[in-house]
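@channel sequence for tomorrow's demo:
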Amino acid sequence: MDTHQEEADDPDEESCAMASIASEATPLHVNTARNRDASYGSETLTFSNIIATSPPDARSGPDARSGYLSSNMSSASIDTPGNRSSATTPNVSNVTASIFDERMNGNKPLPSMPSMSSKQAITQLPPRHGQVVQANNTDSRDKSNSLSSSHQRPNSSTHTQNTHSLASRIKISTTLVLLILGLILSGCTLVEYATMGPTSKLNDSTINGSHIADGNGGGTIKESIEKEKNRRAKAKELFDELGRYIIEDYDALPTFSSFLPGVAGIYGKPVWSFYVNRGQGISSFGVKSKDFPIMEFHSANNAYQNTPLLGFRTFYQGHRGGGWGKNDESFVVEPFDPARTRFTQSKNKKDGGSVGDEASNYPTRSMFIGSNELQIREVDHVHKIETNVTYFVLPEEDFGAFVRRTTIANIGKKKSVHLSILDGLARIQPVGGKLNLLLKTIGRTLEGWMGVYHADHDTMPFFRLSTEPLDSAAVIVEEAGHFCLSYIENEENDFLPIIFDTNKVFGRDSSLMRPVGLYEKTVKSIVEGEQYGFAKTSSAFAAVEDVVIKPGRSITITTFYGKANTINDVSVTARRIVQGGFARYKLSRARELIKQTTAGVETNTGNHLFNGYVQQMYLDNSLRGGVPVLLGDIDDSSLSLNVDEDPRIKVYHLFSRIHGDLERDYNDFVIEPTFFSEGPGNFRDIAQNRRIDVIINPRIGSFNVKLFLTFIQADGYNPLSVEAVVFTIDSKDECNRLAAVAVGYADGHRADREKLAAILCDGSFRPGQLAEMIEKQRIFIMSTLPELIDNVAASATISPMAVTKEGYWADHWTYLLDLIESYLKIYPDKEEKLLYDEELPYYFSSWAVRPRAKKYVLSKNFHGPGSHVRQLNPSFEDPVRRKQMRHFMSNSSGWYAIEAHSHHDRKGNIFKSAPIAKLFLLATIKFATRDAYGMGIEYEGGKPGWNDAMNGLVGMLGSGMPETYELKVLLQYLRKAALKYKRPIVVPEELATLIGKITSALNELGDGEYIPGESITSNITNVPSELFKYWDNVATAREEYRQKMDPFSGETKVFSSTDVIKILDRWMSQVDIGIARAHAIGSHGYEIKDESLGITPTYFSFNVTKFKKEGKTSDGHPLVSAREMSVGKFPLFLEGVVRMMKTVDAEKATSIYEAVKKSGLRDEQLQQYTLSSSLVGQSYDMGRMMAFSPGWLENQSVWMHMSYKYYLELLRKGMYNQFFFEMRLGMLPFIDGEKYGRSLLECSSFIASSAFADPTMVGQGFLARLSGSTAEFLSMWSLMMTGPSPFFINDESGALEMQLVPALPSWLLRHDPKAVYDQQYSIHFKLFSSIDVTYYTSLSRDLFGVAPAKYEIGLRDGSKIKVDGPTIRNDIALNIRRVVFIDYINAYF
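structure tokens (generated this afternoon):
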């Protein structure tokens, strides 16, 4: 194929003026409906006629000069040295396209969403099932565009969908010309990139106080001002105009890995992808999970080595001027070749030495990390070629694909460059079942199944196995395959031939280091030659036979990698993607999806890094906990109601997954390749990460509180893995009605009606599954799919889903109060209703906790011939429980019905309790699970608490103080509620019996406190016999309760509020005594100083010093019953400190803080806090953390999640100076980025501490993203911006009121010296994803716990309300909480 790159004309100014006239006269509208009988794939609409170009991937060329412009996209030159201001980029305030616009005709305003309004809305191109594109004049104050908002209902006036399947095709509307003109008009306005925020100048008046804390511990005012200026200047240099984080010479820096979010929109099918800072970045990608790779998944250590060779590669055969071989200008070169990495030059620069001639000729390379894209750039100064590669996941299509855009620019000034190009994947894997393990264990044998088939002669290869590689009687023929489709943009978009025969490129170089084939043949001769693709692993290189690029010009090769269900689907996909401008538009949409997801936490301070960090943390928090959308909005009456007020509204979380990335390869993530994509996550992770939901969107109401309370089991534990909720419709009449509305009432639609009704009534389903079943059964629907989903959601009931796995974690229940606390920040007036007026079931699992008599085992010591008693296999799958669940198994599908996971009584009824009763049950069981010394709560369920690397502590009969402190918080909350509402609590009869036995045991114990060092003066580690007896009696009662609760009798007992308070008071007294004992016993470790600081211990172990043999386990180990015990101590852990601080006042918290600073928990070199003090000398019995090197993973590293929990407690206690001092030393994005070794916006799980042996790795971050740090930071952000209780009940009037009490340091304020006097310093943020809140002050000062002097509240109708004083009265506060009427709040200090 001979291709000559042409110049493009500059945009015509006159056309902009014409478009302006046209756009004012006529609203824009494109009809995308396809005739029911039209052929599949008959679309004729050309994307380049209606869409904007995204920023091109080269600094020059036609893309940089002209394109199709839109107000929500940009036309830009990619950065080069000296050219970082050549871009015009989007301003968020000018963008109206919501993620919900992908559904095309949904234009109902959703006021509770973040604002991206403009005077003229530009709607997005649809997925193939979409119906209508509309562009209407929209009020500039519309607040309807956040992913974390309601699932937007389509406008009832939109055209009816005429489609034979969900893969409908787009046609040209009669108003297309008007749309073109309107889009050109919107592109004629240059906009400032909003994400970077306004520039803030800093002068002497911006800093208060005589000393300012910084990375060096302080300094004079002048020094601090200068450092702050440098901070802000450096923050700007770290980003390009698109807000992407820049890493220069990325492949010469310490290795790191990360990932693209895998977000394709509500109506898109995502793929997963990981990248490293080696080679061309992408190390693996695929569909659903690592079991279904397109590029094989490798752990990080292997990915760093494999990616440059097995990943994406690019090869140029080229010459300039007169022809091949003349004047030594012919060349074969590989951009991003690891052999030309600038290691030497980087070293010389760092050491201040001179740069060698060879190193100075090496290309310069950069990485640009966007929130939903990755770009790498190489500038080859020798060959005068710049190569830019951009990766993103294809959004909003009914097929998934990973997109690669390679832009090649001639940066020479005089001569054109002639190139033949190979660009693509060195190794691509076929479809053939779960392949990850097989590729690593029988890779060579597996190649026998591999083959390359063709949807077209040489441009549409199809990679699959012949059959699934199963050694069974049932043979499964593989029909699905992976495709690779490629073309040059801005040409005729003819597909390029694909070189799939690896030998043709690399010859006999099996290392794939050198393209031996290109040394021997031209690209053209390789294309024309025979290729062989069977019985070996293939490549997927797009081939450009010959192209001439003039000086200053470029070409872009775009390639799509994805999965098709059949080979015939490839040509259909090809017709879709080949339309002009498709890839550029989709890149812009990929960017917008994430911007709209994070718009709800838009924050504008004087620090650009902090602003970006807020949004990145919200994104990562959403990827772990899920992005909540609201379904069931079927009429306007629901817009101001929350899920508790309108039962039709349902909350559904999207895009969640468990981590399982290159560095955390032990987990298996799932990203479903469906519409409404989501995946399961762990209870602890999701519970923590969702506590911000109701603060971002009040319409979510109490959904998360009820969901996680429902997961609490009658035994006090919960399932491990939480899945998306499921929908059920029990009424056949309702199913028939919904089917008729969706399909139509005509007789000709009867078959489709019946099929759809059968789907709706055939058990539980999720929205993505519903869409998939409609597509597979080729059901024609008259309504839009979004309308159908909303109607179904409004009629359905939702049920939680979870999966129990081996063992129960001791800390999971502790996150329930965090959810309740977040809810009560917004709905303090709804507490009584939540606690007493709802009824929730108990989750039922087949897993049970063994009694002590069946898990206390005498076993050999690991280090010698002696024996000790350990707790082994504490949980098991109970056959009795499994039998109960089988009563609810579907005979047709083999799946359990929803009822199988609910606890029943003996009459077969689902047993339910009020939330207050479930919390009381939790408190009872946890109180009854305290250890033999009454200090920590036992790890009896097979798993430890938050610190899962203490896995061996379970075997050591260990217990944890963190759970004890959380129990104290729970008991205090229950007492407060009982005293406040004076209502009884109804509990199961079996629980009441347990409470009675606990009371009897306490009576027998008496009033002795048994505090070591006081009432006990010798052998303080030996458990007193009185305490041991109490423990044995209560543990026996707990075990008897668990035997009797399966099932519950159905009988209940009522405890009056007075009785409840008496019980709780007695229990709290015992907990306090236990805490005093723990402090008296203390900790013990390598750091001797730690023992004298009075810091709370975190863990204890118990050694059975006297026992009786009681039989044997199934594997022959002796079972024993304990008769006497002694307690073992451990070094300090930060978790105990964090949990204790939740139970003390500010004065005590301050003393704890000062003690911790002096302890081994503080890393003086990094000025951060480690997870533990030194563990030197500890037993390997305690868990895998002892197997790790000090300073690495959980062994004395800076574990960011726990550090952030610690910082959060400082803020919660009002320790503002200490908090902001620590923030600028130990929190992202303020730490040393060079040491950190990756994007300062991405929070790692841990930082290698100074305890690590290799000093070059100290301060480097590992295991990036998807950690609990995001939840802690967002809680900090909420406290900083609004204070602890934005809504509260007035003690005198009893009415709901509002007050904003921020905690903001002066150095975060923006300074505008041109503003009016009382508005020179400000901070802006989004409240409830929608309301613009701006704080103004006339002076640069700290706003620490200070309420405003007055407010100005702007309404949607343009009117204003002025409020004098610090609080906002009831009627206005209620409207603010409902969001719908409020535009902005200005607060003046």
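heads up for whoever presents: The two ends are 68 Å apart (CA to CA).
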